[in-house]
Amino acid sequence: MSERNTAETVETVFRIESARIIAGVTRVVRDVGIAEEIAQDAVVAALEQWPESGVPDKPGAWLMAAAKRRAIDLVRRRETYARKLAEVGRSLAETPPADDPADADDIDDDVLRLIFTTCHPVLSTEARVALTLRLLGGLTTREIARAFLAAEPTVAQRIVRAKRTLAKADVAFEVPYGAERGERLASVLEVVYLVFNEGYSATAGDDLLRPALCEDALRLARVLAGLMPEEPEVHGLAALLEFQASRAGARTGVDGEPVLLADQNRTKWNRMLINRGFASLQRAGRGPYSLQAAIAACHAKAVHYEDTDWPMIASLYTRLLDVQPSPVVALNRAVALSKAEGPAAALKLVDELSDVPALRDYHLLPSVRADLLESLDRRTEARAEFEKAASLTANTRERDLLLGRAARAASGEPPGPASERP
Amino acid sequence: MPRFLSISYHDEQNRPAEAPSAELQQRMGELYEEITKAGVVLDMAELAPTSEATKVTWSGDKAHYTDGPFTESREVVGGYTIIQAKDKAEALEWARRFLEVQGRYEPTTSVEVREIAE
């Protein structure tokens, strides 16, 4: 039996609560940068006081109260804030006295406002991603830099500039309603999806997977689903990420090489995440993430690759193409159709895509084309396409896989499985 | 991010006879909401009493069945939670929060936090 180390407790509680505290303080000071500093001050206060007084019963509420007290002091004290004081007068009146237990509904609203602020379209996509991971995900600048293979000072700069941009643009700390809401929510979901995708198919480097990034994104999606249960697309995104994450353990082989969907050991798929995916899918809607989740569900349902319901997947892609026209979706639809109706029809569709500028450097286009040519026994052309695909990917693992397939296509071995994303 | 299985134990023979007070039920509800909105819980459940359980053992090339309750054990598993947390310290903090509420209702409750081997 022992007590936990107090400093470690402070750090842990802050890690769990930091997004809520920063959100609550931002409502008072209207500036995420200042809010982050104040939250840190509260941690320092806890480090000083808890060893003496003992860890409070509700350490999270203690930190929140300490931070809010500081925030209110700051707003009142600083002359430069006199003007702002008039603006925030209303919210100060709403702020509960610092020693009251914080109202859970208020905190939830504040966290949502914070998410909508860090994902605000006034910021570049990179800035949105970095700031969201920093303030909502609780990642350090170093962790973000490592995840994106960027230099730490670059990321630090990006975050500082993002905070300044928000302050300068006087971005309202609110969850938008009405017409603006859908657009802004799309921006929030996009950030979470981008973070997940970067972890799931690392665009560069030696790792195919950066699991930590996927998990941070999945956690953000789960938080969003908890905070906005009435938004079907949020559940759609959560479902999609649960399904994708369920396959993580099967996507790479013993040496870290990618394993294609057709070759994956499906017993390694995480059943709990799959079940969570189905549960979220039940609450999803008909938007792009929900449809992608429905497609992922088709794969999750198939016990063997041969059981995959390709006609259903093809029809879901057709619907997806309706709500989110994009050449990548069109390409995926072609792959599904090749399984449902044969390679010849699909090749025609893929050929139509070969002039689309957006796909010029997209390695999966020649890779899919190569698959189709291979199944039509046009081996020389298949080989050239596999080689082209290999030259277009910056991920070394993926390149090795494609070069291997080029060699195999030329050697006359039986065609391998198709190259849907593993 | 590691996953943790938190197993809660209680003394089945000395469980409180009365249901938790309205206030305590409200706090349990609030805690449930808190962990859901924090995005950490993957799965959680309470288990049926051991009187409804059956133990299956293997000996002499045969399965043997023993129906509960198992009189030799006082502390039994009452429920479990699977959470995904940054580290064990975070998982322990959630266990502490659970006990802060549950311990008021059933003081003999204890929680064992174990990382799931990946």
UniProtKB/TrEMBL annotation, chain A:
InterPro entries: DUF6596 (IPR046531), RNA_pol_sigma-70_dom (IPR014284), RNA_pol_sigma70_r2 (IPR007627), RNA_pol_sigma70_r4_t2 (IPR013249), RNA_pol_sigma_r2 (IPR013325), RNA_pol_sigma_r3/r4-like (IPR013324), WH-like_DNA-bd_sf (IPR036388). Keywords: Sigma factor, Transcription, Transcription regulation. One of its GO terms (biological process) is DNA-templated transcription initiation. GO terms for molecular function: DNA binding; sigma factor activity. It comes from the Bacteria. Residues 21-79 form the RNA polymerase sigma-70 region domain. Residues 184-284 form the DUF6596 domain. Residues 115-166 form the RNA polymerase sigma factor 70 region 4 type domain. Belongs to the sigma-70 factor family. ECF subfamily. This is ECF RNA polymerase sigma factor SigK.
TrEMBL record, chain B:
Residues 7-102 form the YCII-related domain. InterPro entries: Dimeric_a/b-barrel, YCII. Belongs to the YciI family. This is YCII-related domain protein. It comes from Streptomonospora litoralis.
